[in-house]
Amino acid sequence: MEELKTLLVANRGEIATRIIRTAKSLNIRTIAIYTESDAASSHVVQADDPFLLSGGDARGYLDGDAIINIAKERGAEAIIPGYGFLSENADFARAVAAAGMVFVGPSPESIESFGLKHTARELATKAGVPVVPGSQGLIQDQDEAIKEAERLGFPVMLKATAGGGGMGLAVCKDIREVKDSFTMVKSRGETLFKNAGIFMERFYPDSHHIEVQVFGNGLGDAIHFGERECSIQRRHQKVIEECPSPFVTKHPHLREKLGSAAVSLAESIEYGSAGTIEYLVDDKSGDFFFLEMNTRLQVEHGITELCYSVDLVEMMLRQAD
Hints:
Blueprint: E1 6-9, H1 13-25, E2 29-34, H2 42-46, E3 49-52, H3 56-59, H4 64-73, E4 78-80, H5 90-98, E5 102-103, H6 108-113, H7 117-126, H8 142-152, E6 156-160, E7 169-172, H9 175-193, E8 198-202, E9 207-217, E10 222-234, E11 237-242, H10 246-250, H11 253-268, E12 272-282, E13 288-294, H12 301-308, H13 312-320
Helix pairs in contact: 8-9
């Protein structure tokens, strides 16, 4: 490493220890942050320079200003957020850069572009990537929701545009369920994500949820490291992931199509860093559709690393350097 000598890891637990492991292999000094309840955690013990946060357990890991000040005081050249907490916070990424350090992750513009699902659909369409048939933009009221559902054909899914983690979703099998779910999804979006925007997509009950790992250089070039199968879910939250996907392995033509589309989308916005593009694949027709892009390292990145013999964190740190 030429410039990156000291790194602040803005996270805790498994992802913090995973980042520290790679940083140590590159001879990068690591700063860990922790709250009092995490004082005996592995990431605190493993880091070269652990620092106790003053914000308490509920606030500490989300206090971007305090974390940036710690990084500056301890001599860090870069901050890496991992996943969760501040990893998809564009304002935090900008603040890190404004403080003279590198945010180890995608650009704030990329984070914002894919932060709302309905605008992410528009970007995918522009890049020539198929999207799930759905509403054009946000739905304003129940009447419009009913009209869209009738146009698309039941069943449909109402989605909070800022939702994530399986929250802010509702499958509707008829008009009554559209009426009942509209207010609920809107309220949940406002409460959980501070955004009440809703859109609608056709729901495919017989389908697979498959995602592709990408990495871009920020200059218009990107590559992919195959796919992960994430169809085993409970309440729309992933439970088990497999790499490679058994479904794609049975339909090998899909791998090239999914990967090429993912690369095209990443290159279309000059994406830099690790990212994941998620698809819905219809079991009956084999058609695939863009769902969303996660502009960060994902929890499940490790199984891709094992299968493809790559270290995505190392790639992110070398890019930051």
